[in-house]
Amino acid sequence: MAPLLISLLFLFMFPLGNNGQGPPSPGYYPSSRIGSVGFNQGFRNLWGPQHQRLDQGALTIWLDRTSGSGFKSLNPYSSGYFGAAIKLQPGYTAGVITSLYLSNNEDHPGNHDEIDIEFLGTTEGKPYVLQTNVYIRGSGDGNIIGREMKFNLWFDPTKDFHNYAILWNPTEIIYFVDDVPIRRYTRKSDATFPLRPMYVYGSIWDASSWATENGKYKADYNHQPFVGKYNNFKIGGCRAGTASCSPASASPSGGPGLSRQQLAAMEWVQRNYKVYDYCRDQQRDHRLTPEC
To answer: DSSP readout, the chain?
Structure first.
């Protein structure tokens, strides 16, 4: 009886998709339409160069008590598909953020737009949380309006590289994990959608004040260095100022939205692995997020 109970408990905690291994097939794979770009062809170091190493196309960045590290695309983009394969560090990583995101913070400090994929560090035995977020003309002064949606994953992101991507065009933002759409954020008004050009960034840094269980667990540098590994960089975007570029699409039709099969895969992920949705947070003032 005990083994049966253990198996049932595992299935409850880690529900499986139709194939017994993960979500239903999305039927369409946007990453296959975008060629990989070498790190030096698409990016440069932004900060912490002594904590950044490139080896045969694979980038390693790390955080210790002296510094973290970050990188930035060579060009700004007005839309596109942006991704990378990422492998996270196992064990105690509380307080540590490993990220891939779009931002124009350097061009519009205090009034910037941002589209985030952030892995929130964790404690031993607990899963990583993948946080997606959208800022529109936000700031770092405490008045920032986040639009967070958080997920656990149907695999262990420390065991191998997995592909994570953001598709951003003038009508929608779609987040992908291994080509499975996990979140779609649509343009319902100009005031609730980022429209200004952004660069692509990645980083690892100490966010002890909020990253893990709202700051309950801090970065512990007895476990340093904290390492993030990236490869298979994808940039399929319209460079800012290019008039003739067609925005990227997530759909096999080439138009906006997702196919029925993609929607089914996204709904499976949200039903089984979504752990936070800002629109359903009763503590939030939803007058500030009218799209809800």
So the answer is: -HHHHHHHHHHHHS---TTSSSSPP-S--GGGGS-B--HHHHEEEEE-GGGEEEETTEEEEEE-SS--EEEEESS-EEEEEEEEEEEEPPS--TTEEEEEEEE-TTTSTTSEEEEEEEEEP--TTS--EEEEEEEEEE-SSS------EEE--SS-TTTS-EEEEEEEETTEEEEEETTEEEEEEE-S-GGGS--S-BEEEEEEEE-TTTTBTTTTB---GGGPPEEEEEEEEEEEEEETT-TTPPPP-SSTTSSSS--HHHHHHHHHHHHHHEEEEGGG-TTS-TTS-TT-
- Tell me the CB-side half-sphere exposure of residue 91, using CA atoms within 13 A: 11
What distance in Å separates the CA atoms of residue 204 and residue 97, rounded to the nearest whole number? Answer: 5
What is the C-alpha radius of gyration for the chain, rounded to an integer number of angstroms?
Answer: 19
Residue pair 84/233 in contact (Cβ under 8 Å)? The answer is: yes
d(CA 66, CA 12): 41
* 9 pLDDT more than 90: no
Taking only the tens place, the pLDDT of each residue in 140-165 is 455 678 999 999 999 999 999 999 99
- Per the annotation, the verdict on 267 as an active-site residue is no
For 150, the token pair is 């958080």
Q: Which of 118, 124, 148, 172 is catalytic?
A: 118
Integer Cα distance of 214 and 193 in angstroms: 26
Is 213 tagged catalytic?
no
Q: Is the pTM of this model over 0.85?
A: yes
The distance of Cα 82 from the centroid of its chain, to the nearest Å, equals 10
